[in-house]
Structure to design on (108 residues):
């Protein structure tokens, strides 16, 4: 593969990676309303479960009160945000490599 083609492929990968990361971050923000509904639902469920002496588990974390539910929901949301942020960083790195390859190509 020629240097020019390599630069184009790496640039395209950078664009796609950055785009996917941005979508994940946008979805995280759009999910704020869903998180509120989750908290309300968990509050109602916890009340029922205490009466029945049952437990609820979210992402391998046993939930006994609303505070633990908040922590579990926050962990899930922060994981999604970190993934999106790393994808954006990876996309920018790929774009930087592509631009460097283009500069090298044009200097020859």
């Amino acid at each position: 593969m020629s240097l020019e083609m390599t630069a184009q492929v790496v640039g395209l990968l950078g664009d796609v990676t950055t785009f996917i990361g941005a979508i994940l971050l946008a979805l995280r923000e759009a999910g704020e309303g869903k998180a509120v509904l989750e908290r309300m639902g968990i509050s109602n469920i916890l009340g029922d479960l205490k009466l029945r002496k049952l437990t609820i588990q979210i992402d391998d974390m046993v939930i006994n009160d609303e505070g633990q539910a908040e922590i579990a929901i926050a962990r899930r949301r922060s994981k999604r945000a970190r993934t999106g942020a790393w994808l954006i960083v990876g996309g920018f790195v790929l774009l930087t490599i592509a631009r460097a390859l283009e500069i090298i190509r044009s200097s020859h």
Summary: Residues 8 and 43 are 52 Å apart (CA to CA).
